[in-house]
Amino acid sequence: MSRAEDIFQKLIYFGEDALDDFIINRQAEELFLDFKQTTPGIGKNVTSLPRDDRKNLAKCISGFGNSEGGVIIWGVECSRDMDIGDVAKAKIKVPNVHRYLSWLENAISGCTIPSHNKVRNHIISIDENGDGYIATYIPKAEVSPLMSTVGNNIYIRSGSNNVPAPYSVIAGMFGRRPQPNIELVINEKSLEIVDNQKEQIVFSDENNENKEFDKVVRISFSLHAKNESSVIAREVYLSCTTSSSGGEYNKVRFLNYNQMDSIGGMHNQLNLISRPELRLPPRGSIRFANIEIILTPDTEQDFLFDGVVGADEAAPKSFRIYINKNTLRSYVAKVLRLEGSETEEEQKQQLLIEFFHEFFRSEQ
């Protein structure tokens, strides 16, 4: 998952709370994030996206699309900070948010040449008056460069701004052979409270009663690779390492990776590569392996699981799951306290979402 998609997913799951978090923490506009206010005083006779808003949208689609992707949040006011740039200051609701969403959807295809058909919009929240906030997710374009139809410039993202691309950059875009773009996809997520006495997942020290675990937490998921490019990908690979499991009795297990060639590595490391005859077509996906993380109340260290995915001639994408020891201890305790409660399953789903959104990070 790219940084831009991670921001977009956070907005989908946490809604307006995510906006409040940006404001409290003075989140700055950056390479993957832009805050915009809509044109004030839009009258009832207006039937399409106002000119200034269309200009902002076109520049962002070109800039983010020609770079590594990004997210626009409509309805946030910024203030200037001399040290870190424009930071989120306050929420300014988008009037008639469904109408504005319709304008955005209708404008997207005409904002750039060629058009970017992967742009997505999501209403973050809406009040009883129909006002609210919208997020626009702009992934990296498969076909570039994208030229804005407002001003006929080709933009790239530079820091927190969309700037006209220098000639050398544009020449490189035209002359560059299309390359595979491999994205990591996590599926089949689950969180369970496991009876250790029955399944004997953790063998604790029989001479130390404090190390006997009746219940443990098991988080399971599968790792997949998806080819998000318009060309065939070959020699798709995954390498991941458990630098620290958080404690002596915690475990990370790699399962069901027999469809890939495994390369021997260090302890707690998995190295996989697709077989020579495999070719992954555009939009195609393959499964690397299933992962099980076993967590016990006995936490003495931070938890760190990291890795990288890629393919021949593709830029590698790194990812990690990191939890400091105090947070990990608190998280395990919260899960175990759920057992037998009336809302156990519902709250486990919330804690599963929290695990991947708070502790999982992917980078370009």
Strand content: 35-45%
Unreliable spans are: none
Main sheet specs = 6 strands, antiparallel
Number of domains: 2
Strand order of the largest sheet: 16-17-14-20-21-22
Total helical elements: 8
> SSE order in H/E notation?
HHEHEEEHEEEEEEHEHEEEEEEEEEEHHE
Q: Which geometry do the CA atoms define?
A: globular
- What is the subunit arrangement here? single chain
Task: Give the termini separation.
Answer: 9 Å
- Please give the share of residues in helix: 10-25%
Summarize the structure.
By secondary structure, this protein is of the alpha+beta class.
How would you characterize the overall build of this protein?
- The strands form seven sheets. The protein has a six-stranded antiparallel sheet. A four-stranded mixed sheet has the order 1-2-7-6, with helices on both faces.
- It has helices spanning 3-14, 16-24, 51-66, 97-108, 167-175, 196-199, 325-336, 344-359; strands spanning 33-36, 70-74, 76-81, 85-91, 112-113, 120-126, 132-138, 147-148, 155-158, 161-164, 182-195, 215-227, 233-234, 237-245, 251-255, 261-263, 269-273, 279-280, 285-295, 303-310, 317-323, 360-363.
- The model has no long low-confidence stretch (mean pLDDT 88).
- 25% of the residues lie in helices and 36% in strands.
- The chain is an alpha+beta fold.
- The chain has two domains: 3-175, Methyltransferase, Cobalt-precorrin-4 Transmethylase, Domain 2 (2-Layer Sandwich), CATH 3.30.950.30; 182-363.
